[in-house]
Design a protein that fits this description.
165 residues; mainly alpha; 57% helix
């Protein structure tokens, strides 16, 4: 298959977009400039080494925790409420799908109201607790456990809704 000019330009553009962050982080090579035109002048002393061995904030994925900042704030409540709502909706849609004998891939042990809720609600609670501890520790991606559970609930809820007619 012969590549066209459009394909080559598109590939070049994608490579430039991918490589741009890496190229922007490189620094220019260090150069020494002689003071007052004297090449034999001594260079200034190097800075003292740092005794702080902690990695920089960007390397840990954490942000500094501000004193007095609340962990359970508006974003936390909204994220976990959406997760809990999607969990309940997915459970109900799956139960209705099971009643119509369409969802055959659900294990036999989970084919009841109490059993299905006994699995889905503790899973959502665990994701909420994990998000709480991640947010309290200062991680910026504290919402990922709730987002994963919500995404799974939406995907399986849509599947159950399509097959329950």
């Amino acid at each position: 298959m012969k590549t066209s000019l459009k394909q080559l330009l598109l590939l070049t553009a994608i490579l430039c977009v991918i490589a741009a962050p890496a190229l922007a982080q490189t620094s220019a090579p260090a150069t020494t400039v002689a003071v007052a035109g004297d090449p034999s002048a001594p260079l200034p002393d190097a800075p003292a080494p740092s005794t702080d061995r902690r990695p920089p904030v960007a390397a840990t994925g954490r942000r500094p925790v501000v004193e007095g900042e609340r962990v359970i704030d508006r974003e936390f409540i909204i994220g976990n409420s959406v997760m809990l709502g999607s969990t309940i909706a997915n459970t109900e849609l799956t139960l209705r799908c099971l009643e119509n004998h369409y969802c055959s891939l659900v294990p036999g042990d989970l084919r009841g109201h109490k059993r299905l809720y006994a699995v889905s609600l503790p899973t959502a609670l665990g994701a909420g607790v994990a998000g709480y501890y991640l947010k309290r520790a200062g991680y910026r991606w504290w919402f990922v456990p709730a987002a994963l559970i919500t995404t799974g609930n939406v995907v399986y809820g849509i599947h159950a809704a399509q097959h329950m007619r």
